Amino acid sequence: MKHALAYEWVRVRSLRSTWLLLAAAGVLQFASGLYWGLKRDLGDLDAFTSAFGLVDRLGALLVAAIGVAAFGLDHQHGTLATTRLVLRSPVRIVTARALVTAALGLGGGVLMVAATAAGVLTGGGALPADAGAAGRAAGAVLLLTVLSVLAGVALGGLLRHTGLAVGLFAVWAFVAETALAALADVPLTTLPFSGTALAAWSGTSVYLALVALALGATTFTLARRDA
């Protein structure tokens, strides 16, 4: 397994898109933190937690694209045969990709939280005195980025196309869940992407279960379809 992880790390770090997507997520959050840090009429709100919301979901989409690329680019560039020759087992391939991209997702989440704090302070704002609220907001970002990048891995493996997988993820996260909440009165806290972003355990549990099932399906199809 150590060899598989080393192989995946070399592969993913060699992709320029990995670092561009992480940087873009950080820049978005810094800009959001700066915007809220410059505000002086926040009332009961605080700049740090207010800087998350739509922007951290956009950041999660960018991080998810890293996971999509883990399989999507392998299929599109015809390099999956080489990966299979080196790593052999579909279980090893999916597990290594999931672990490496999860680490990148966690790093992306930490970057987004740090960039938000830096933006708030640069704008002259203050970090929240309530450590609990700040911790919940930061924790939600970390969970969102890790689960989203893993969902990206699964979508890339199942759909075998980077653009299609990223598009489907974006439609679900920003259109389908909004429609379910507005038209079917489904609470946002129970929806996987929105619930995780809102630090709701019900939505996070659903997201975690869906990711586990999707990664299992990816392993199965890799063993059958791509043999």
From TrEMBL:
Task: List where the protein spans the membrane.
Answer: 20-38, 50-73, 94-117, 137-159, 166-184, 204-223
Does Oxidoreductase count among this protein's keywords?
no
Q: Which domain of life is it from?
A: Bacteria
Keyword Protein biosynthesis applies: no
Keyword line: Membrane, Transmembrane, Transmembrane helix
User: What protein name applies here?
Assistant: ABC-2 type transport system permease protein
